[in-house]
Amino acid sequence: MKNKQTNAIAPSIVKQAIQVNKKPFPWLKAFSAGVAAALPVMIGLAFGNLQYGLIAGLGGFSYLYVFNIPYAQRAKKIFSVVLGLSIVTYLGTISAPYPLAVAILMGIIGAVAMFVFGALKITGPSAIFFVLVFAMSSGMPINPDDAFLRAGLVFLSGCLSWIIGMIGWFFNPYGPETGVVTRVYLHLAELMDSVGTNRFTEIKHKVMEVLNESEETLSAGYIPWRTSDMFNRLYLLNMYANELFIMVVENFSNAEATLPKELGQSTRMLANSLNKRQILETTHILQPEKMELQVNQLFSTIYNADAILNEPISNIEKSIQFDKASLKTVFMGAFDKNSIVFISSLRFGVITTIAAIIAYQFGFARSYWVPLSCVAVMSGATIVATFHRAIQRFLGTVIGIVIAGFILLLHPSGFVIVLFILVLTFITELFIVKNYGLAALFFTPNALLMAESTSQGVFRFSYFAQARFIDIVIGSAIGLLGIYIVGSKSASSRIPHLLGKTLRSQAQFLMVLFMDQGEGFDARKSRERIKMRINLSNLQTLYTTASGEIPANRRALDYYWPILFSIRHLGYLLENCSKESNRPILSDEKLAQILFSFESMANAATRNVSPKQRVIPEIESYSSIQKEIQFLQKELGRSL
Known about the structure:
The protein has helices spanning 2-17, 27-46, 50-56, 71-95, 99-119, 128-138, 147-166, 175-194, 200-221, 229-252, 261-274, 293-310, 327-334, 340-361, 369-378, 383-408, 415-431, 436-454, 461-487, 495-513, 527-546, 554-578, 588-607, 623-636. Mean pLDDT is 84; it is low at 1-11 and 277-282. The longest helix is centred in the last third of the chain and has 27 residues, at 461-487. By secondary structure, the chain is mainly alpha-helical. The protein has three domains: 16-170 and 329-487, no CATH class; 175-319, no CATH class; 492-636, no CATH class. Helix 1 (2-17) crosses helix 16 (383-408). Helices cover 70% and strands 0% of the residues. The protein contains 24 helices and no strands.
């Protein structure tokens, strides 16, 4: 049976690995990445030192961490990457004489980078370029005295990448924030259109996802000492979007009839108006002649949002509040034996170290390519993604070596090398969103070109090509084997425990919300809220990782999916409730009933049994919370 499963899965993995997705080409980012990589080399060449230019070019990798996030967050993120790459360049240079130290440091650097990116949920290539820069620094001619010089060159080049990455701020300073709030209203319009249809639950999930994203995006872009009229509008529009979502879910979740089409149309027009550069255009709110009270309330909220979009705003700054967890809180939440972020980082570091030790012990040519291939393969988010990476990297590298052969037959030198670096980096970034294997077709000749250039003609192309092919096969095999042995079931086996833990944290936060806490208490700053948010985040990451295991337990995943959605929706409702100051105070008896039901669910989830269905007392003005707890009980009662 096991062999049949494996044989059935294998073809689908290969097929998925060679699929090209339909994401649009990132033309501007690809061109900017090419400039960031080639410009330092060109400057070095202009000053008569190509080697310094190539070293400085390592700092150009900083630009690959540029994504569509608020500029306030982008500035901090990219500068931190620049510092990190400078530090690993220094460490790689001073540790180069000691292969064992290089191997251990490579594992530590990979693990730390993976942990930081995972804990902070930072989009990007994670640890791969930190390990790459460290490895290439350790593979340069051994000269520890050059450590500060090399680190300085990387830092200066990285600062250049920072400038390139921040240029967009001058033209559209709130572009990322505007984009996400626009998507919120477009999804809300879709939600209103789906009321009374079988698509409502699916769309509701999408809206909740983008609402959470918009909250995080606006929070990341908020600078307390510098607010603008545009940011204030976006903040208030997001607030009204949350109100609209709650109203729709509260009043129309079980509706059989559809809502007036004018609701969706007006919301969509508002989103389109927001997306224009000149937002002070009048949005015509469509409205039916006759409507129910609850529908009228939706239109009133849309009118209020439209007023925020079109009318002058004053004294709004005082109402803006964001609750950001401290870095210490975030890292401590991820630094847990059941946190998949911590487990994955530890596994990543250990396997990288083992790959590096094997490479240096057996004296492979350009030994650092073995752990680099291992790291590239392990950078997949799940085990399935890891297998995809291995297949893509192998196929891309084989063809990439052929491309590199044609390039190096031309014996490029001087500014021709710069041009090739620019073009190959540009094409790599253009295709990496489509398929990693397509990108490998171009970053392989790019790497070989840089290696041949830095060798100053000591080795022939055949040497580099053969070395790279062998090292990639060995490194990919180590990465695959390590991931499969160490982590094949590490995520799915932890779901029941973390599910129970998350339920208990929600019960504690609910008690804080509906219990008399005295004057001056702010539920938004409570430890219970922070704990709930961390557990919800860890649970989502755990489920995503479990869905990529081989073989995946589809039955368990199908069972947990509606439960996970219900828990996240309940967390969203509790978060919104915490923003209100006039919450009802529940009696001790009602609180005890609710807490007992949560404890029953948590125990049942941990032990993989069905909880007893208990009566959930009414929560005045917050019936949606009561209904969600009842729904959660029902979902947990299904047999696994």
